[in-house]
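User: Reviewer 2 asked us to show a designed sequence for the structure in our supplementary figure. I'm pasting the structure tokens here. Could you produce the per-position amino acids so we can include them in the response letter?
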């Protein structure tokens, strides 16, 4: 008999009832050190006092109004984002998947209004993950994502990750945009080198193609900059943001230049819940905290500290770990055992990590994780490796 909750997840038999900082407490009272953060969502840890306070304050005033009306909390958060980024305008969503849908629409509408309705193709890359809507899975194109869900939305050109020659050859008079994650999350914490992002920006400028960055997972301070593309010194035309921007409250945003967004006029897009007062009030507090240069400097320092410890783990346990990947506090350990096995042994050691492609486990701790918790994480990962070596 099918369970009351649709069984689309391969869930671990652990149920959490409370969170505090970098720690989660299960029903049986056991504490787990959370290096997954809800897959990069709980950017400031669990039950951050400032977020609890702003959510409580807003909840006592106003939860929801239609986007038929002006929403002051929305305008405030949009102002914070445009002040801190390349963007001139913002549309708020509830999730990263919804940002993908709008990014696709926005890019195609731009070229349509520019007199080039034939420019509908979007170039995407192997290993990408842009969400689970029909448009987003068509963009990713992997068999795991699309099998059984056809016919797929047309108009996507899928390339091997890092194949520069194929990229240049793929840009044609039908291309409207290129969409890329500066750091792939689901794809195995694969970092696009700065010079490649610069070259991609140049190629898009040369061909009149819009550049879309998917920073749903790698953005919001995760690399030690507010957004990962800042390290390369380039900017996109459109950017997808979600996960960490709400600090645990469902929130997403599409940021765009005035030019790229020029086709999105009244009636071309909408959302019932997107940009509601609760989400935007929390999001504004998250952006205020994370965008502080001192906070971002601490993320970079903590990332270097964690990475140093992980490199030592790789050296001590070559039968289990092969290499460290990533930037800041978006790190991956390439494993020799199956990632799911590493994650499972982690449960026994009271540490939570996230499996990814290419035999990688993701380490996405809270951006404000204390140094003592980093040390404890390294100790527990060492225990995980020891247990896996014993079982080999």
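Assistant: Here is a per-position design you can include in the supplement:
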């Amino acid at each position: 008999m099918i369970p009351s909750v649709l069984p689309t997840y391969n869930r671990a038999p652990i149920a959490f009832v409370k969170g505090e900082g970098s720690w989660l407490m299960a029903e049986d009272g056991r504490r787990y050190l959370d290096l997954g953060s809800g897959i990069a969502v709980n950017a400031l840890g669990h039950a951050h006092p400032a977020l609890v306070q702003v959510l409580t304050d807003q909840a006592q005033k106003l939860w929801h109004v239609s986007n038929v009306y002006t929403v002051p909390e929305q305008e405030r958060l949009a102002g914070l984002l445009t002040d801190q980024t390349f963007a001139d305008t913002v549309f708020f969503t509830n999730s990263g998947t919804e940002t993908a849908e709008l990014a696709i629409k926005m890019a195609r509408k731009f070229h349509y209004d520019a007199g080039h309705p034939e420019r509908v193709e979007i170039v995407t890359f192997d290993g990408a993950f842009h969400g689970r809507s029909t448009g987003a899975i068509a963009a990713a194109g992997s068999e795991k994502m699309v099998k059984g869900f056809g016919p797929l939305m047309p108009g996507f050109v899928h390339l091997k990750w890092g194949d520069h020659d194929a990229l240049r050859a793929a840009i044609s008079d039908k291309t409207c945009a290129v969409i890329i994650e500066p750091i792939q999350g689901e794809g195995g914490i694969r970092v696009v080198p700065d010079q490649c992002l610069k070259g991609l920006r140049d190629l898009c400028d040369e061909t009149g193609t819009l550049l879309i960055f998917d920073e749903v997972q790698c953005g919001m301070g995760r690399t030690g900059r507010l957004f990962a593309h800042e390290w390369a010194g380039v900017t996109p035309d459109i950017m997808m943001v979600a996960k960490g921007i709400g600090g645990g409250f469902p929130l997403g945003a599409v940021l765009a230049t005035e030019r790229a967004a020029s086709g999105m006029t009244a009636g071309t897009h909408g959302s019932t819940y997107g940009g509601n007062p609760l989400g935007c009030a929390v999001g504004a507090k998250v952006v205020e905290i994370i965008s502080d240069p001192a906070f971002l400097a601490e993320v970079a320092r903590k990332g270097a500290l964690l990475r140093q410890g992980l490199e030592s783990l790789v050296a001590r346990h070559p039968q289990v770990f092969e290499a460290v990947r990533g930037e800041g506090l978006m790190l991956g350990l390439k494993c020799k055992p199956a990632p799911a096995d590493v994650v499972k042994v982690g449960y026994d050691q009271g540490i939570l990590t996230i499996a990814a492609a290419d035999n990688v486990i993701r380490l996405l701790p809270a951006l404000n994780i204390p140094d003592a918790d980093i040390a404890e994480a390294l100790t527990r990962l060492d225990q995980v490796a020891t247990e896996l070596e014993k079982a080999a």
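For the response letter, you might also mention the following. The chain has a mean pLDDT of 97. The first strand starts at residue 16 and ends at 20.
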